[in-house]
């Protein structure tokens, strides 16, 4: 039986690997400042309301807000990851308050910031 902490570390390593692969392959022709900011983030694919959603976990509010104003490069990533052209291009740009507080996410489907107590 696996220790849950080990599973979280393995999952985080997989997410960082996915992040680096996407930055290297999908953002190779974008501005260097954007690639540098993205290297501080962690990408994952999650499901909300039965749809795949691309989530960008940002290190802080400033990075999340900056990326939330530059959503165009992220619109095709769900298609890139799933090869499902009938799905949405919804993305979340999230940051967590200090000391394990609430999560705040910019949702591109509504262009609004939303808060969650728990986000997995």
Question: What does it look like?
Answer:
The chain has helices at residues 4-26, 32-38, 61-68, 77-82, and strands spanning 42-48, 51-57, 91-96, 103-107, 112-116. The protein has 120 residues and is an alpha+beta fold. Strands 1-2-3-4-5 form a 5-stranded mixed β-sheet. A hairpin with a 2-residue loop joins strand 1 and strand 2. 18% of the residues are buried.
How is this fold's topology laid out?
Layout: H1 4-26, H2 32-38, E1 42-48, E2 51-57, H3 61-68, H4 77-82, E3 91-96, E4 103-107, E5 112-116
> In angstroms, what is the radius of gyration?
14 Å
Category by helix and strand content: alpha+beta
Adjacency order of strands in the biggest sheet: 1-2-3-4-5
Average residue-wise pLDDT = 82
N-to-C SSE string, H for helix and E for strand: HHEEHHEEE
Counting DSSP H or I runs of 4 or more residues, the number of helices is 4
State the helical fraction. 25-40%
Principal-axes geometry comes out as globular
Strand residue content: 25-35%
Low-confidence parts: 1-7
The rounded distance between the terminal residues' Cα atoms is 21 Å
Per DSSP E runs of 2 or more residues, the count of β-strands stands at 5
Main β-sheet description = 5 strands, mixed
């Amino acid at each position: 039986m696996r220790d849950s902490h080990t599973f979280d570390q393995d999952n985080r390593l997989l997410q960082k690997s996915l992040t680096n692969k996407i930055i290297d392959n999908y953002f190779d022709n974008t501005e260097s400042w954007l690639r540098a900011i993205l290297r501080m983030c962690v990408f994952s694919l999650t499901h909300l309301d039965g749809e795949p959603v691309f989530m960008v976990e940002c290190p802080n509010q400033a990075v999340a807000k900056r990326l939330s104003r530059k959503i165009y490069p992220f619109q095709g990533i769900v298609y890139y990851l799933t090869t499902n052209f009938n799905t949405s291009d919804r993305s979340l740009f999230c940051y967590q308050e200090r000391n394990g507080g609430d999560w705040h996410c910019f949702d591109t489907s509504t262009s609004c910031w939303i808060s969650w107590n728990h986000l997995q």
